[in-house]
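Table 4 source record.
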Amino acid sequence: MSVYGHRCLGPQGRAEGCLGHMSYEYSEKRLYNQLLYFAALWDVDKAKEGAKSMKEDEGIKERVIVLAETNKTLFAAMKGVVDAYLKRCGHSWVQMDNLFGFALR
């Protein structure tokens, strides 16, 4: 698929012999939201804070804290991959000059 997202590039990548119309199955916004979910899911410190503020049984709180600490290295590795993709993504940045361009005139 080309950068523009609609034209089929064909088997050689020269847009020859392919008359099909391409479209994305998964939008950029949905992918970004899923990456944010994964970043929050594998955040060990956030899980421990959430467990401490739970109004449930003490046994459940302790289990969550122990499981989070036991799997901390694995979760940190997965969160590192997600954070690397989020750092490359432009959805978290706002161009302030475009937003407040009227004030600069």
